[in-house]
Amino acid sequence: MAYDIDMIKKVYSQMADRVNKAREVVGKPLTLSEKILYSHLWDGETSKAYERGKDYVEFAPDRIACQDATAQMALLQFMQAGKKQVAVPTTVHCDHLIQAKMGAAIDLQSANKSSSEVFDFLESVSNKYGIGFWKPGAGIIHQVVLENYAFPGGMMIGTDSHTVNAGGLGMVAIGVGGADAVDVMAGMAWELKFPKLIGVKLTGKLSGWTAPKDVILKVAGILTVKGGTGAIIEYFGEGATAMSCTGKGTICNMGAEVGATTSTFGYDDSMARYLKATNRTDVAEAANAVREHLTGDDEVYANPEQYFDEVIEINLSELRPHLNGPFTPDLATPISEMAVKAKQEDWPINVDWGLIGSCTNSSYEDLTRAASIAKQAVDKKIKAKSDFGINPGSEQIRFTAERDGLLQIFEDLDATVFTNACGPCIGQWDRSDRKGDEKNTIVHSFNRNFSKRADGNPNTHAFVGSPEMVAAIAISGRLDFDPTRDKLINEDGEEVMLDEPKGIELPTKGFAVEDAGYIAPKEDGSSVEVKVAEDSERLQLLTPFEPWDGENLTGVKLLIKALGKCTTDHISMAGPWLRYRGHLDNISNNCLIGAINAYNKKTNFVKNQLTGEFDGVPAVQREYKKAGVPTIVVGDHNYGEGSSREHAAMEPRHLGVKVVLVKSFARIHETNLKKQGMLGITFDNEADYDLIQEDDTFNFIDLKDFAPDKQLTIEVVHADGSKDTIKANHTYNEPQIAWYRKGSALNLIKEQNAA
Q1: What's the pTM?
Q2: CA-wise closest residue to 210 among 166, 257, 171, 242
Q3: Cβ pair 82, 753 in contact under 8 A
Q4: Average pLDDT over the chain, rounded to an integer
């Protein structure tokens, strides 16, 4: 039986009435996304048609998922909310704090030792507040969710940007910051601007070397890293229904890389097969009873241009394998063009590593397709030229893959099987084959390939591809290898070619596992004590942020003007900093250390206007805070792109930054700033970014009149006494302005709970 089956049946029991009412109010056929959104309104049945991209709407998500790195701060905040138990089903998954180095057994043992304090905290706080706990080694959060919790037509939020993976099972699943999750845990509504809709029509059928990953690699090339911002991407068509459930999950997972709110597919037979294979026949039967409401209306898919804000059509029969990168996930290159492109761009041709896994591509089917290539290499006496690393998605997948001989195939190719965890995908990789910052190339089946992402080296050129393509390229050892036409020389000196990959959608013997790694919470956790040592360097109880005094903000100094791409990795790096995710003051020592200073083109080297000297960003900001000087961060387009980590908003707030002024925000980061009581605003005229000088002082002369849809006026005073007056826009509504006034959304929640 599925987890939370009664909750799922309740969702389905309400769906018909809510969808029919929404169709009546909207006055036209509905997409799947609209059906799920309208059936999860906080107030129940809708009485109005919401305007996409404009109206803020309150929703009631069905469940929450948290990974260990973000769960720490989320649960530290929840502990302040004054609640005895979470209001909706919630789980915590320990997958981020396990470093890949030697192999699964040794690495897991090392993580349990080095992060025992954090794991013990998460287990105890989960036990106390009724939260399901998945222990270290149980698997990667999004694969575990797909196997156990995702259900068609549901809505969930998760404290990780790749929560969107659950769209592979027909959910609207959205990555959020921990403060958003705390609202829902505390029994409050969750607010989201009603998304725009992008329809992707898939015709034809995948075959040969082309995989579901190539669909999203193609889409990323079309939309770019910000083309999906504020929108749900809904896939449909014959090509969609012909694809496996986990293949759909891969596509939805990487939708985060185009900035999409989430991505989803309509319920079909592949989802039913997957539910039954993962011991959720009860969910499949319940879904079948409301099947018509778990996909878009026929008229929508017949005439998509009338119902979506944008429509993309991809013929899967014509789609070819891609590699995306380096340094950005939207630089799409067909494999057939890589040889010419790599030479033009002077990308390193020799490939050092091939990495298979991550939440994007670690399903049983993924492993079988990659293993079919690896087995050919063994059988045809081809020695792999690159190192191999494998991260299974869950203990259930690892156990089943081992039983079926898949892992042995990789080991015969001298691959290292890492723990069922994120590992290199999020920078948790102790890469011993390189020292320093040598220019090099790796290929992986992950989702992100930002500079320094995997191994901390800014000169590592990381390329994203399907598991089978990663396997083929790693075996060849060359970035310009095209397995559809190129030959390899085996150990006998013979020319051989790799045959097309073959995959198995679901294990023929069924999934198996001895210990999945789940620990259920106590029904009554009131007696459970959650301990946080006062001298801990890993965990720190939170102190509420100070409320706004209601006055104009004046005398604001520039901390840094960030040049170009500034992702959450630049604002709050992962890798070795993950150990401090539960200690706000300690992790704040990485605040903006990856951002490029627009004036000297260096990282972590900014001018202290109080002394005229240069130092690291956190050190300079701590001096400003000590002196009581408010500061501002200025940024470029899509500021805060990437992970949902709220630390990227909490760290500047903790250190005393008052304002973030940019050309445009990534959705999750903008919300995180609002939740933490920060002023996140955008240039009305993007060219005003160029007016900002290193020694500037900013005066917000009408902040006292802060109101929805009202521009803010900023006086920019230059060092020579000259001034520029600029306008800034914001998207705060009345409830969000209330967060700002109170100092944070959590402060307001506590006040309401105390009333």
Answers
A1: 0.88
A2: 242
A3: yes
A4: 96
Predicted local distance difference test score (pLDDT) of residue 667: 85
Q: How many CA atoms lie within 13 A of 497 on its CB side?
A: 8
Question: Distance between CA 311 and CA 586 in Å, rounded?
Answer: 46
**pLDDT for residue 645 is more than 90:** no
Helix/strand/coil for 58: strand
Residue whose C-alpha is closest to residue 658's, from 685, 680, 626: 680
> For 358, how many CA atoms within 13 A lie in the half-sphere containing its CB?
31
Q: Which of 448, 538, 581, 653 is catalytic?
A: 448
Q: Is there a catalytic annotation at residue 643?
A: yes
Q: Does the annotation count 579 as an active-site position?
A: no
Q: Distance between CA 469 and CA 290 in Å, rounded?
A: 38
Structure tokens at 267: 């319920």
Classify residue 140 by its DSSP letter. Answer: -
The tens digit of pLDDT for each residue in 52-107 reads 999 999 999 999 999 999 999 999 999 988 789 999 999 999 999 999 999 999 99
351-362: burial string, b at 16+ Cβ within 10 Å, e else = bbbbbbbbbbbb
Cβ neighbours of 329 (radius 10 Å): 28
The strand pair at 723-729 and 712-717 is best described as: antiparallel
CA–CA gap between residue 13 and residue 132 (Å, rounded): 25
In sequence order, the β-bridge partners of residue 478 are: 350
**Would you mind telling me the total number of residues written for the chain in this entry?**
755
For residues 186 and 180, the answer to whether their CB atoms sit within 8 Å is: no
Q: 155 with 8: CB under 8 angstroms?
A: no
Choice among 62, 160, 688, 696 that is catalytic: 160
Question: Of 40, 93, 96, 667, which residue is the catalytic one?
Answer: 96
- Which pLDDT tens digit goes with each residue over 365-409? 999 999 999 999 999 999 999 999 999 999 999 999 999 999 999
Peptide bond before residue 326 is cis, with ω within 30 degrees of 0: yes
The pLDDT value recorded for residue 578 is 84
- Using alpha carbons, select from 696, 726, 729 the residue that is nearest to residue 713: 726
Catalytic one of 583, 622, 645, 647: 645
Look up tokens 């030229």; give the residue: 385
CA angle at 152 for the pair 60 and 511, rounded to the nearest 5°: 125
Q: What's the farthest any 2 CA atoms get from each other in the chain?
A: 80
Write out the two tokens for 39.
């059936």
Whether pLDDT at 49 is above 90 = yes
For range 127-150, the mean pLDDT: 98
pLDDT tens digits, one per residue of 8-38? 999 999 999 999 999 999 999 999 999 999 9
Active site residue 448: yes
Task: Express each pLDDT in 250-297 by its tens digit.
Answer: 999 999 999 999 999 999 999 999 999 999 999 999 999 999 999 999
For the ranges 129-138, 534-543, 649-658, which has the lowest average pLDDT? Answer: 534-543
H/E segment holding residue 342 = helix 338-345
d(CA 651, CA 635): 16
**Burial of residue 663 (number of CB atoms within 10 Å: 0-12, 13-18, 19+):** middle
Q: Please answer whether residues 593 and 612 qualify as being in contact, where contact means their C-beta atoms are separated by less than 8 angstroms.
A: no
Binned at pLDDT 50, 70 and 90, residue 668 comes out as confident
The residue among 233, 232, 204 whose CA lies nearest residue 216 is 233
Name the residue with tokens 């102790």.
Answer: 430
What pLDDT shows up at residue 574?
A: 83
Does 645 participate in catalysis according to the annotation? Answer: yes
| 614 alpha carbon, distance to own chain's centre | 34
pLDDT on residue 217: 98
The single-letter code of the amino acid at 256 is: A
3-state secondary structure of 133: strand
pLDDT at 755: 64
Q: What are phi and psi of 408, to 5 degrees?
A: -65, -35
Residue of 451, 643, 644, 744 marked catalytic? 643
Phi, psi of 657 (to 5 degrees): -65, 135
Q: Which of 68, 95, 404, 688 is catalytic?
A: 95
What confidence score (pLDDT) does residue 727 get?
98
